[in-house]
Amino acid sequence: EKGGYEHFMLKEIFEQPTAVFDCLRGRLDAKKGTITMGGIDQHLDLLREANRIIIVGCGTSWHAGLLAEYVLEELCRVPVEVEYASEFRYRNPVINPGDVIIAVSQSGETADTLVALENAKNKGAFIFGVVNVVGSSIARLSQAGAYTHAGPEIGVASTKAFTAQLTVLYMIAIKLGYSKGTLSKERYQHLINELSLVPDKIQDALNEATSIEKLAKKYQHARDFLFLGRGYNFPIALEGALKLKEISYIHAEGYPAAEMKHGPIALVEETLPVVFVATRDVYHEKLVSNAREIKARKGQVLAVITENDDLFEEIADDTISVPAADELIAPLISVVPLQLLAYYTGLAKGLDVDKPRNLAKSVTVE
Ligand code: F6R
C-alpha cells in the first residue's frame, strides 16, 4: 500500500508530479491555450463580478489560500482576503451578497472550515469549494467547486494535496484574469505553458532527495529554524516551517524576509539554521542582502535556489537547487525540497513521520 516507500509521507511527496498532472489533465490544454473547468465555466460571470473574494481554510490549506491571494490579486485585480476558518467563524466578519468565498480543504471535513462556510452561506455569500475528498461535507455544502484530484492523502502532513490545491487555484486565477482582461493574452499563454511544465520540474526537484537527506542529518539537532521568503515564496516559507515542526518537532517559524529586522533577527546565532526560499524573482537582490545579514551574525544559511545561482551558492552554507520557473509558478516547485527536509529530519530523529504526536488527519472538532 505504500508502493515500496518507507512512509506514506514520502510516497505522497513523490506522487506530486502525478498529482499535479492529474489535476491539470482534462482541464489545461497548453497547445490550444485553454483551461476548462466545469465549476468555473458555469459561474464565470459571478466570479468576474465578485466585489471581493474571501479564501477560508486552516493550516496548510490556509497557506495555499495565502498564495492564491497574491496570485488572484496580481492576475485578476480583485480584492482578496484570506482568513483562518476558526477566526472567520467567530469574529462576525462583514459578508455581503456578491462576495465569493473560496473554501480550501483537503479532507472536506475540517469542522472550523465547515461551520465558517455555513455561516457565510447563510449571509448570502457564494461558496466555491477547492476540496480533495469527493463527496465530503465541504464539497456538498459548496455551490460550485473544483476537485483537486490528488488521490487519497494518508500521511498526516499535507503534501500532494497542497500542490494540487495550488494547481487548481492557479488555474482559476489564470482563467479568471484572462476572462476579465486583466491578464494579457501573451502572459496568459505563458502561464499556461509554465503550469504544464510543473510536473516535470517537480520531478527534477525530487531528484535532489539524497542531498536533502544529508542536510537533514546535518541540521537535525537544531533547536529552532527560521524560514524566510518574499512575495510568492513567503507562503512557502510559512509552509516549510509548519512541515518541519509537525514532522520533526523542531520549533520553526516562517516570516517575510524583510520582517526579520523587526524581531526575529534577535534569535540569530551560530546554532540557528535560516532557510531562504530564494528562487530567482524580482526580490532576489533583497534576499541576497537578507542572507548576508544572517551570515554577518553567524547564522547558518540554507537556501532553496534556482539552479546555477552562483551568488547565493557563495553566501549560503548549503543550497538546494530547483529548475527555473516563472516567479508566479515557482512556489509549486520550491515547496518540494522543504517537504523533503521535514520528512528526512523526522526520519533522522527516529520519529513517526506519518503520525506525528498530537495530530489527526482531519480536525473534525474545534
Ligand atoms: C498540515 C496539515 C494541516 C491541514 C489542516 C486543514 O500538514 O495537514 O494543517 O492542512 O488541518 O485540513 P484540511 O485541508 O483537510 O481542511
From TrEMBL:
Give any single GO term for biological process: fructose 6-phosphate metabolic process
* EC numbers, comma separated: 2.6.1.16
Q: What GO molecular function annotation could you give as one example from this UniProt entry?
A: carbohydrate derivative binding
Q: Which reaction does it catalyse?
A: D-fructose 6-phosphate + L-glutamine = D-glucosamine 6-phosphate + L-glutamate
* GO cellular component terms given for this protein: cytosol
Record's keyword terms, sorted: Aminotransferase, Cytoplasm, Glutamine amidotransferase, Repeat, Transferase
**Compartments where located:** Cytoplasm
| Enzyme class, UniProt record, top EC level | transferase
Query: Start and end of every SIS domain?
Result: 43-182, 215-356
Q: Which residues cross the membrane?
A: none
Q: Which residues form the active site?
A: K361
The record's function comment reads:
Catalyzes the first step in hexosamine metabolism, converting fructose-6P into glucosamine-6P using glutamine as a nitrogen source.
Its subunit composition reads: Homodimer.
What is the official name of this protein in its record? Glutamine--fructose-6-phosphate aminotransferase [isomerizing]
Q: Which organism is it from?
A: Cyclobacterium marinum (strain ATCC 25205 / DSM 745 / LMG 13164 / NCIMB 1802) (Flectobacillus marinus)
> What gene makes this protein?
glmS
Q: Parent protein range shown?
A: 246 to 611 of 611
